[in-house]
Specification:
two-stranded antiparallel ribbon, alpha/beta, seven-stranded mixed β-sheet
């Protein structure tokens, strides 16, 4: 038995709206494309387009879960980042557009005349490492995470996107060997006491280990910055994604640890988003 797609989608949109889901119209569209395999243009051209009742039921089940604040990306299992598609689940942070600024900054600042060794700490889904690997032909990329489950996702994404990243299970630098021209990281940076204030999609469904930057939100920056000089080449650079109010503090940490030419970059909303530095003074 088949049902009208526009009726099912209309019902879903109203359900999401009544549940107070932000961007309910956009979420409904994404879920419809994924579960009903139907794009908005199809309905405009073919208003009587029908879908199988069982398929419609699967879509409506997903809508009900979204009403309970399960992230859309956990329902579809994927998220777009830097023009590529990445698998996601509850073991990794969902790649966010803000993080593309970090990747773009690394790509701009890398020397493009010779091979560059890159290390991505706290890699999660692997989106940063894999994007750099795919978009910088001269990059030899390594990525680490303390979570074995996160690394399973990252390795799957590496294969999915035809990457050549080497993954290491490691608590920051513990199992890392060699020197790197670039160290990049989007570490946990939310203060512990602020996690409960986050939107439900984040505080409930994102892995806490990937959010919690401990008391002041700066613990990982302090650890990485203090050890980075032992793993960077003499002309090496370090790049961090940061919280909107952490720019000056992270900049100070880099300067205290001998980094020069430290800069803060803002995102499209005008908020501090990336800090980077290089040329270590030993």
């Amino acid at each position: 038995m088949e049902v009208l797609a526009k009726e099912i989608i209309g019902k879903a949109k109203m359900q999401l709206k009544e549940a107070g889901v932000p961007d309910f119209d956009w979420d409904c569209r994404i879920l419809a494309e994924h579960f009903l395999h139907i794009k908005r243009d199809t309905l405009l051209l073919y208003p009587d387009f029908c879908v199988d009742e069982e398929v419609a039921g699967t879509f409506l089940d997903a809508v009900e879960k979204r009403c309970q604040r399960v992230p859309v990306q956990h329902l579809t299992g994927v998220q777009e980042f830097m023009g590529m598609e990445f698998c996601v689940n509850s073991n990794v942070l969902i790649p966010r557009q803000d993080t593309e600024i970090l990747v773009e900054t690394v790509l701009k600042k890398m020397e493009n005349t010779s091979e560059q060794r890159v290390l991505d700490l706290c890699t999660g889904s692997g989106c940063i490492a894999i994007s750099i690997d795919r978009l910088a032909s001269h990059a030899v990329v390594f990525a680490s995470d303390i979570s074995a489950e996160a690394l399973k996702v990252a390795k799957k994404n590496n294969e999915k996107n035809h990457g050549n990243v080497t993954f290491v299970e490691s608590d920051l630098f513990r199992n890392i060997e060699g020197k790197f021209d670039v160290i990049v990281s989007n570490p946990p940076y939310i203060r512990t006491d602020e996690i409960e204030e986050l939107m439900e999609e984040v505080k409930v469904y994102d892995p806490r280990i990937a959010l919690d930057g401990l008391e002041d939100g700066l613990w990982f920056y302090k650890q990485i910055t203090a050890q980075a000089k032992d793993y960077l080449t003499s002309e090496g650079k370090i790049f961090f994604e940061i919280g909107f109010n952490q720019g000056e503090e992270v900049k100070g940490l880099l300067q205290e640890n001998g980094f020069t030419e430290v800069e803060i970059l803002k995102d499209l909303a005008g908020l501090d988003r990336v800090v980077y530095g290089g040329k270590i003074n030993v």
